Structure formats: C-alpha cells, structure tokens
C-alpha cells in the first residue's frame, strides 16, 4: 500500500473529524444564561439571536465541509487529477503554461464549489440577521476584482515558482522562499494605497476632538501615522471594526464608519490604542517574522517531497510534473499546516491580551475598552461562550468574556503593565 496515500487520507479524515467535533462542542457550549458582564448591554432577545446566528453559520460551515471533503477524497482515489493533467497535456502547451492551467482549473473548481455557500451566507444568513448591505452587483464586482488581482499578481508569481522548481534543482526552495517573501512585503507596503481602495473608499477623518485625541495619543506613544481614515464598511455590512495597516512610514489606521456611529470617543480611542499597541509592542514584526519562517518551512519541505514518485503514485498520476507536485504536497502538508495554525493562534491570542493591556494602561481608561468590546460583541452578535477546543483551533483573539474580565482587573491594579 502507498504510504503517501495512507498519510494523505488519514490527514484529511482526521482534520474533517476534528473540525466536526469542534463545531459540535461549540454548539453544545452555547449557554442560555446571559453572562453577568453583559447584563444591561445585551438584550435577552438579542442574546438568543446571537446564538441562532452562531448555529446558522456552523450549519453552513458543516454543509460545506461535508460536500468538499468527500469530493477531495474521490478526486484522489478515482484519479481525477490525472484526468485533468492528461487532458491539458494533450493541448501541447509549454510546461509552465500547462501548470498554470492545471492549478487555475483546480482553483476555479474550488471557487465554484464555495460560491453557493458564499452567496447563501451573504444574502440569506447575513440578511436574516440584519447585517448584509451588499448588493448582488457589488458581490459580483468584488469577486471579479479578486479574480483580476489573482491573475495579475498570483499568476506571474506561480509561474516563477514553477520555473524555479523546474530549473534550479536543490536551490529552488530558497529562490521560491525569497520571491514569495519579497512579494508579500511589497503587497503589505502598497496595499493601503493601491489595493484596499479597489474595494472600499477611505476618507481622511475630519478635524475635530476625536482626530486631535488620536493624533495626540499616537504622538505620545511615538507612533508615526501617515493618516487616519474612515472606511465605508457600511457599504457591505452593518458590522463594526477598526484595523491597522501598512508598513514603515506607510502606517495607517482605518475606522469603519459603523464604528464611529456607535461608539463614543473614549471607546474609539481605546480601540485604536489597542491597534497601536500591536505596533509598539513589536507584534507586527513578530507575526511577520513567523509568517516568513513558516513560508520557508513550507518550501523547504516541498523541496524534499515534490519529486517523490510515491507521492504521484498516491494520486494515480501517469507522469511527474512540478505543478502537480506542488498541489499534492500542499494536500500532504495538511497536518503540518494545522499544527502551525494552532501555534499561530496561540501567539496571536497572547498578542491580543498584551494589546488590551497596552490600551488599558496608556489611555488610563480600561472601562472604555471593555465597553467597546461589549458593544462590538452585541453589534456583531458574537458568541460569548465558545468552547475551549473551538477557541484553540480557530480563534485569533481570546473570547470576549475573557478580555472583558481581564480588563476589569486593571481597575484595581492601575500599575499593571502589559505582559
């Protein structure tokens, strides 16, 4: 029996079982009793709606998983990858062009399978719970823009990777790692000014007390800003958020317009202090370094397995090729990817706790950050009682109850610093 096939099928089934167990535990952990910290903030009816929203999203996620996982297993066992490769080979195109078509076809199939679930999520679930503001025309435009960016940026990068692994031998992984890292850094630098505006409108925050307080806070923290912008998040959803983007001197803060309409200045400043905290505490550099190392590990392992005859035999391939090897390795990589994702989540949650502490101590108003988190949870119908297993596997932020309770401790420990 092919050991690669055994490992691949076992990894797919294990990930499938783990994900379904996580959803089951999360659903069972939904508590009908409103946590005391949210009394007076969460209306009991709205709290019930938040649990209905969690269940609806989990059912849709489960349905998608139950469709896509059996199809992937069928594609492997029945040799569908080989059928596609042989058909493309018959076209007589250059190897790199064949590789781009092979991977592009797989991406198209994957996107087509996921599209109905995206439509249902946007126009049924989000609509039912009062979040959706995306029109069908805007939905289509967003997908077309995403496709155009993939072709403009992704296709040339993929072609270069294929060429590296076809021609550079043992050095291919290093060249692939370097190019991918360089492209990622460039995109992070130009994203705020060239890419994000393709999807949303960013307007400078108008002069006034809020802008003055933000600029004063940033100055006192030694944080250089190139701008504070309001993003038209309400164009797609009524949910609220804020985020920090850009690198170096291109750092920007973006506030959803929905955030400005629902929060007072103290709460908004606390949210922004949290985002600035990520930069001041070195989180962005650490996460960037972790991402670069993870990419290096990916390509390093890929170099070891991409030309393995056993890997191609597991997929029933009649010939070996770089493009098929890339795809097959990414499937084989599933267990490693899961472990790295969990580790990344652990680090991210630690950073979020530190950023909360930074906001609490530097603004001197931890209660404002707690109020902001409560309002955001209510406005977004967040699950207040996620199961620890679900948090462990998927959460980049600590559960909101944990964050609120931790912020409450700063009232009695004003000298506490971020840790």
Automatic annotation (TrEMBL):
Its cofactor is Zn(2+). Belongs to the peptidase M48 family. GO terms for biological process: CAAX-box protein processing. This is Ste24 endopeptidase. The chain crosses the membrane at residues 96-125, 146-165, 171-196, 326-347. GO terms for molecular function: metal ion binding; metalloendopeptidase activity. The keyword Kinase does not apply. Residues 30-201 form the CAAX prenyl protease 1 N-terminal domain. The active site is at residues 275, 356. InterPro entries: CAXX_Prtase_1, Peptidase_M48, Peptidase_M48_N. Zn(2+) binds at residues 274, 278, 352. Residues 208-409 form the Peptidase M48 domain. The keyword Transmembrane helix applies. CDD domains: M48A_Zmpste24p_like. Binds 1 zinc ion per subunit. Keywords: Endoplasmic reticulum, Hydrolase, Membrane, Metal-binding, Metalloprotease, Protease, Transmembrane, Transmembrane helix, Zinc. It holds the Pfam family Peptidase_M48_N. It comes from Desulfocurvibacter africanus subsp. africanus str. Walvis Bay. It is a multi-pass membrane protein. PANTHER family: CAAX PRENYL PROTEASE 1 (PTHR10120). It is found in: Endoplasmic reticulum membrane.
């Amino acid at each position: 029996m092919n050991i690669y096939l055994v490992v691949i099928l076992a990894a797919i089934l294990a990930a499938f079982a783990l994900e379904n167990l996580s959803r089951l535990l999360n659903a069972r952990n939904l508590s009908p009793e409103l946590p005391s910290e949210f009394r007076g903030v969460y209306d009991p009816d709205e709290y019930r709606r938040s649990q209905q929203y969690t269940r609806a999203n989990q059912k849709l996620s489960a349905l998608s998983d139950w469709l896509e996982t059996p199809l992937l297993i069928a594609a492997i066992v029945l040799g569908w990858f080989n059928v596609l490769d042989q058909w493309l080979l018959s076209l007589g195109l250059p190897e790199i062009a064949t590789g781009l078509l092979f991977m592009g076809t797989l991406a198209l199939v994957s996107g087509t399978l996921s599209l109905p679930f995206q439509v249902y999520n946007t126009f049924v679930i989000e609509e039912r719970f009062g979040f959706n503001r995306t029109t069908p025309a805007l939905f289509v435009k967003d997908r077309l823009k995403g496709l155009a960016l993939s072709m403009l940026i992704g296709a040339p990068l993929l072609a270069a990777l294929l060429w590296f692994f076809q021609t550079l031998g043992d050095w291919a992984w290093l060249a692939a790692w370097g190019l991918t890292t360089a492209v990622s850094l460039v995109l992070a630098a130009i994203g705020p000014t060239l890419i994000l505006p393709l999807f949303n409108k960013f307007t400078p925050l108008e002069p006034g007390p809020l802008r003055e307080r933000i600029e004063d806070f940033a100055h006192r923290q030694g944080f250089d800003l190139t701008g504070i912008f309001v993003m038209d998040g309400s164009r797609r959803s009524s949910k609220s958020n804020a985020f920090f983007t850009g690198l170096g001197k291109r750092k920007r803060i973006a506030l959803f317009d929905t955030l400005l309409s629902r929060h007072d200045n103290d709460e908004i400043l606390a949210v922004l202090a949290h985002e600035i905290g990520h930069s001041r505490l070195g989180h962005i550099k650490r996460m960037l370094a972790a991402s670069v190392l993870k990419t290096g590990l990916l390509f390093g392992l890929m170099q070891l397995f991409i030309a393995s005859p056993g890997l191609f035999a597991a997929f029933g391939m009649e010939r070996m090729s770089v493009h098929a090897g890339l795809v097959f390795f990414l499937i084989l990589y599933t267990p490693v990817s899961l472990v790295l994702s969990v580790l990344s989540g652990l680090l991210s949650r630690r950073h979020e706790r530190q950023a909360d502490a930074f906001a609490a101590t530097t603004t001197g108003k931890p209660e404002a950050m707690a109020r902001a988190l409560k309002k955001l949870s209510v406005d977004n119908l967040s699950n207040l009682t996620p199961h620890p297993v679900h948090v462990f596997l998927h959460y980049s932020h600590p559960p909101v109850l944990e964050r609120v309770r931790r912020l409450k401790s700063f009232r009695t420990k004003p000298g506490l610093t971020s840790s």
